[in-house]
Structures are given as structure tokens and as C-alpha cells.
Design brief:
The chain is mainly β. The chain contains 1 helix and 6 strands, in the order ββββββα. The protein has a domain of 75 residues: Thrombin, subunit H (Beta Barrel). It is 3% helix and 39% strand. A 6-stranded antiparallel β-barrel has the order 1-2-3-6-5-4. It is rod-shaped, with a radius of gyration of 24 Å. The model has no long low-confidence stretch (mean pLDDT 81).
């Protein structure tokens, strides 16, 4: 590889986890996302893939994305997404409020502290 930067797409350098399913395999693998752009990502982990493998990737706040392995080097690999995403969404805190089936806890006043007594009603010792 040369030291000349040839990328035309900006990418975010970050550290988060993604779930990946390889082709028709039913197993889901967790990998670290080292950098992410709208068109692809670099993953790292104990997932043995080959160039050209089809993948289904699930990213936080982005959802499921399909793509293919563009390159492999040791335990790192590059993935080219089929469709561009908004990679800035993955940097935001995890959003669960809009997820179906997720309920929010109601405020409970069962263990609320009692109100303070009026000073004139306190007994002096």
C-alpha cells in the first residue's frame, strides 16, 4: 500500500460493536467497527470471511444493511455496503424508545420520601 490517501469518501474513526451474519449462515457474530463511512466499514474480530462474501450487518441506530467483503487482512476486513447509509447516526446514543415492543418504566411514587414536618410541630428534646 502507498502512503497516498486515495479515498474520496470521508469516514468516521470510532469504536462500536456490530452484529454480522454471513450469507445464508444463521449464526450472528459480534465484531468491532474500527471506522465507518456512508459507503462501508472496517470490521475487526474473530470472524473468518473471504473477499466477496455477502453479509448482513446490523449497526446501532442504523439498522440492517447488506454488503459484501471488499478485502481481508488478518482479523480485519472491509465491507462495501450495497446502499449508502447515514453513518453519523451510529455515533449517536442508542435509541430504543421507538423500537416496537419496548416499554418505558412509569414513575413510581411508592417509595417517595415523606414531606418534611413543619418546624413548629417538632418536639424539642
Amino acid at each position: 500500500m502507498s502512503a497516498v490517501e486515495t479515498r474520496t469518501v470521508s469516514r468516521d474513526s470510532l469504536f462500536l460493536l456490530a452484529s454480522i451474519r454471513v450469507e445464508q449462515d444463521s449464526d450472528v457474530h459480534k465484531v468491532r467497527v474500527r471506522n465507518l463511512s456512508d459507503g462501508g466499514m472496517m470490521g475487526e474480530g474473530n470472524l473468518r470471511v473471504k473477499r466477496g462474501n455477502r453479509l448482513e450487518i446490523e449497526l446501532r441506530n442504523v439498522g440492517k444493511i447488506e454488503g459484501s467483503v471488499a478485502w481481508v487482512q488478518d482479523n480485519r476486513f472491509g465491507i462495501a455496503f450495497d446502499d449508502e447509509i447515514d453513518s453519523t447516526q451510529a455515533r449517536k446514543p442508542k435509541v430504543e424508545m421507538d423500537s416496537p415492543g419496548v416499554t418505558t418504566a412509569e414513575s413510581s411514587y411508592a417509595h417517595r420520601a415523606p414531606t418534611a414536618p413543619e418546624p413548629q410541630k417538632l418536639r424539642k428534646i
